[in-house]
Batch of 2 targets.
Target 1
Amino acid sequence: MAEGAPQATGPIRNPQDFWGGIAVLLFALFTLYAGSDLPGMRGFAFGPGTAPRLFGGLLVAVSLIIIVNGVISNGPPLERWGIRAPVLFIASVVFFGATVRPLGLVISAFVTLMIASAASKEVRWVESAVWSALLTAASIALFVYGLNLPMQLWPR
């Protein structure tokens, strides 16, 4: 940590790591719960619940390491955070899910990426439009031509 940087005080010496680890732990526990009714491994055969349990268990282990690190190591205090980024990011994902069929991949992917770009306070709209166009083209190349998925590109 840089010399002169603000240090957290109290029993939790690195609150950013501690609370980040708690968030990852909650996600991991939800993953384990959501996949609990899926059949797992039988002998050497993988079942549909094997990967969620494996990744959920690994996430639990990593999150516990991060939480312990937050308690024993020094770090910066929690910073203020706004609601803009999470709301716009979630809105972009919901928008894509709701519009990919009626609007097609081209329009929905481009607008989704523009909504996600708006999540940053430092957004540069021209750069965002260029990157959105490039990522949309890459999505088309990958999903439609590379993987041969039957996705409609434009509205009907």
Target 2
Amino acid sequence: MTATQAHEPSPDPGAPSSRARWPQMLVGLGVLLIGAALAWGAIDISSQAGYGGVGPNFLPWLVSGTLMICGLWILWEVRTGGFRQLDEPTGSTHGYWSGFVWVSAGLLLNAALITIIGFVLSCTLCYLLAVQGLRRAGGQAGANQPRTWLTDTFTGLVISAPVYWMFTKFLAINLPGLTGTGWL
């Protein structure tokens, strides 16, 4: 054994190859850049304190900071050997396109209808369609039952109404509402 071989660290048998780490590094950089972009956008949000001293810029700063920390953590993991404990993918290696369409339709309809039908109803529709796509992707047998649709609609309302109330009352951020219906 030569002197240089004695000082070289032995490769971790569970660590992915350097070629396999490139996608992991790109994910880490992507998460870091998204966090930085959100921080850049949060600069323009008013910091005037609302209820309890928390202003409208609190949540964007919290999310951007958390994303940047996660991005740095992913990059650190890649530099120290990659995701060594990552299980091999099981099942199908291609995406479930029908579920992707359901979730995308929910997001796009939310964006298109939020100023027309209001925050609460458009977010409820977004939730309903996204959950339907996820149920179908998971192979749930009762995804198309009327009771499931009603439960998902009710759950979407129970989630979106308090969010609307918190943003408009607690953080003093104006969100689109359905004209003439008050908080809806």
